[in-house]
Amino acid sequence: MAKYVGARQKRVEDPRLITGNARYLEDVQLPGMLHAAVLRSPYAHARIDSIDTSAASRLPGVVAVFTGQDFADLNPLPCAWQAGGVTNNANTPRVLEIDKVTHTGMGIAVVVAEDRYAAEDALAHIEVAYSVLPTVVDAKKATEAGAPQLHENAPDNICMTWECGDQDGTDRALGASDVVIREHLTNQRLIPTAMEPRGAIGSYDPGTEEYTVWMTSQAPHVMRLLMTAFVMGIPETKMRCLSPQVGGAFGSKIFLYPEYPMVAVLAQKLGRPVKWTESRQENYIATTHGRDHQTDFEVGALRDGTITALKVTTYANLGGTLSTIAPGIPTSLYGSMLSGTYKIPHLHCQVYGVYTNTAMVDAYRGAGRPEATFVIERAVDLVARELNLDPAEVRRKNFIQPEDFPYEPASNLLNGLAYDSGEYEKALERALEQVGYREFRQEQQEARQQGRYLGIGLSSYVEICGVAPSKWVGLPGEGWGAGLWESANVRVHLTGKTVVTTGSQSHGQGLETTMAQVVADELGIPIEDIEVKHSDTMSTPFGYGTYGSRSAAVGTIALYNSVQRIKEKARKLGAHMLEASEEDVVYQDGNVFVKGSPEQAKTIQEIAGAAAVAYDLPAGMEPFLDDTAYYDPPNCTYPFGTHICIVEVDTDTGRVEIKRYLSVDDCGPVINPLIADGQVQGGITQGIAQALYEFAAYDDSGQLLTASMMDYAIPKAEHLPHFENSHTVTPSPVNPMGIKGIGEAGTIASAPAVVNAVVDALSPFGIRDINMPLTPQAVWRAIQEAGR
Amino acid sequence: MADRVIVNTSINGEEATLLCEPRQTLLEVLREGLRLTGTKEGCSNGNCGACNVLLDGVLVNSCLVLAVEAEGRSVTTIEGIALPEGLHPLQQKFLEHAALQCGICTPGFIISAKALLEENPSPTEEEVRFWLAGNLCRCTGYDKIVRAVLDTAEAAPSVGSFGGETP
């Protein structure tokens, strides 16, 4: 009997957050703590000829200044996800660069001082002689003859060339199509901009030779592994990593950054704890960016709207060096998902991963899937436009149908995996009905008569979530350098109070609440009796962390499985206490009783007490109710849905106003609608932001022009609509709870919905595409050019 | 290092004497000196509102106010928002709507919304959205925050019923 799962349960995290009592990294103070500030390269491409730190070292308050030479014994940071099946010419940053930089913001030197003022002030007194080199910031131009070369091991600046699908079959199918539509799409560079910048604190105990590192991380266990085994060359067991409360991440805090091992080593060198926190400007130039694809595609179709083939070529800008999982994003999480919700018989995708003199590009909310969805959802709309068909009709005609599941996209796109389940048309019809599609088309016609330009945009997406199956994602398949299973430990203490520890890591998703809801229902105890603990490598089982919408579909299932085993042990002990035979007793809602006699029950609290004191256990039974589960699912999960956006475009100013935004998402059963709606709304906002506002702009010399919150256009409350959110529920057959995941759906669906709406509004002008972001200037210009 | 100065002020209704450098921001002194870490630093240049506090009841970014400017004035931070009987109505509504996710911008939003409701106890949705334009949130898309503020106003529409220190 579900009491908590599915309910609008208030978040257990919130009391500490709304009172200012949560403890984020910035709030952690250790006795005797020093402060570090990093000198960053102002040049995007340069040789470092010499560094003189003597003046800075003499300043009051400065304890020490170090350069790359002082960390020369550390390995460069690892690139843990290289594109599968191909050569990756990998180049990664060092803790501090020694002789060369390939983007602005790379660390050159570090000042450690008694306070942050002294450390920051001293940076200006470090003298560095650079030989400035020519730069290239555009991924396509970087591959052309004569472009500046960033790395010796990467000719033409190509890190890797990757493909999926069937090139010959796709070419043949395009040749046999009634129409072939070609388009160039830019999926512009974005900056994640979590409201909490990154930071880290290192401390070292010379007695035990153990390091402790606090950091703003989505994956503390992975950070520990990478820092110790790969960068520092020390036993993994000699370090403890903790993420305190994390203030948003959106992918940008998955990765190992140079400053994390740096603070650990500084603490060891100086014998005092060392804290480093990022300024907002550093967050823009030295934390990873996302997207930055240039794509050419050809889509073929028959006159009736049947899509015959899709051929895609993408230049993915990876930045000046590789971040931790950069090559995996535009390959496994992008090319593999280009079929979208449609049966496309022939597909081919070619990806060039390219180095340029820009900040590192890695996973940003959605990570590859927003880029793929943008291509296919724009392509479908262009087919509809070309053939003068309704975009909803073209979607219906090509949808994968419920009976087609498990569905393997054409040409083994998913490398052996298959979409799990879906009712794509149901979500579309629900959305069309809710928005009043037919009535809107009428209203649109009438508005046009009055010179008002309304538009409607559809986006029917499918994503790949719960990314895990280790055999698939790992080195034999997609190139991920480890596994991706998850873990959980459940302990029911003597008093019946229950502690859950998980290798997942919550940084705003409310996992402490949703995980407790699952345990409360399954174990049959009040949610107040459950503590969910995470983000400390010393007290939680190993886990790969929280990203890719995987903590419900993978991490929570580990927890679910662990609770089942706890229940089974409790049932056996309960039978013993009831002096009944094991076969005759059942576990139900926190009670163990003989079938048909619920009045003579032993409660889970009584059983936990009996297990803990262990005075009278069945022969062979170990004391205590304690279980650890490791869960490696057989497949990923594939949430889907349809989003609809209605806009009005002011053709005099180019300003786009969102009149309505409506989502119908299917993430399987919803654990907590209060939380799921929040995830969807926040996700939609980041997609709207991409469609209308945000753009990381570089000049030709590699200077980031949008390196502040004044210049990088994060939308505010006044820029956004009220959201209309609903769900269909199609359980996943992959896991016992049927859960699919919801963290990234909004971001994946929304950018194409908005762009399709604007292009629909402007169709009377003959406009068929405008590059994102659709700023007033871009829209106004498109209208002017169309008018000529 | 600059000479330190003494600042006599009132923090969340209690008299406080601070010893700080003239260059230190109010944000820094609240966080580092008084360990009132509920006020957050998001950008340190007045763009994000995570450091919002009330200075004599007026909404300010504490990263743009020097601590010495608090001399003779009263400061209200997130730690001083709750009422003697429990959470402030805004905190209650943020809780009910789950109008937050990572929570780092939340103290700023609650302070900002309190200032709004004291000035305009029955705002329209548009007025709420424009008032909150000085507060950035990257997680929620703002809708739940706007609902929570409107809901608070609806539940307690009279001026001065929002508690805390009203000037």
CATH superfamily of the largest domain in chain B: Beta-grasp domain
Strand order of the largest sheet of chain B: 2-1-5-3-4
Mean pLDDT of chain A: 97
Give the assembly state of these chains.
Answer: heterodimer
Q: Hey, roughly how much beta strand do the residues of chain B contain? A: 5-15%
Number of domain units of chain B: 2
Strand order of the largest sheet of chain A: 3-5-1-12-9-10-11
The top-level CATH class of the largest domain in chain A is Alpha Beta
- Give the biggest sheet of chain B: 5 strands, mixed
Work out the helicity level of chain A: 25-40%
Low-confidence stretches of chain B: 163-167
| DSSP strand count of chain B | 5
User: Helix coverage percent of residues of chain B?
Assistant: 25-40%
Mean pLDDT of chain B: 93
What is the first-to-last residue Cα distance of chain A? 66 Å
> In CATH, what is the homologous superfamily of the largest domain in chain A?
Aldehyde oxidase/xanthine dehydrogenase, molybdopterin binding domain
Reported CATH architecture of the largest domain in chain A: 2-Layer Sandwich
Number of helices of chain B: 5
SSE topology:
The complex is a heterodimer of chains A (788) and B (167).
Chain A: H1 14-18, E1 34-40, E2 46-52, H2 54-57, E3 62-67, E4 100-101, E5 107-113, H3 116-123, E6 127-132, H4 139-142, E7 158-165, H5 167-175, E8 179-190, E9 199-205, E10 210-215, H6 220-232, E11 239-242, H7 259-270, E12 274-277, H8 280-286, E13 290-301, E14 307-319, E15 346-355, H9 369-387, H10 391-398, H11 424-435, H12 437-449, E16 453-462, H13 470-473, E17 486-492, E18 498-502, H14 511-523, E19 530-534, H15 551-577, E20 585-588, E21 591-594, E22 602-603, H16 604-613, E23 625-631, E24 640-649, E25 656-666, H17 673-692, E26 723-727, H18 745-761, H19 776-787
Parallel strand pairs in A: 1-12, 10-11, 14-15, 18-19, 25-26
Antiparallel strand pairs in A: 1-5, 2-4, 2-6, 3-5, 7-15, 8-13, 9-10, 9-12, 13-14, 16-24, 17-18, 17-23, 20-21, 21-22, 24-25
Helix pairs in contact in A: 9-10, 9-18, 14-15, 15-16, 17-18
Chain B: E1 5-11, E2 14-20, H1 26-33, E3 52-55, E4 58-61, E5 74-76, H2 89-97, H3 106-119, H4 125-131, H5 143-155
Parallel strand pairs in B: 1-5
Antiparallel strand pairs in B: 1-2, 3-4, 3-5
Helix pairs in contact in B: 2-5
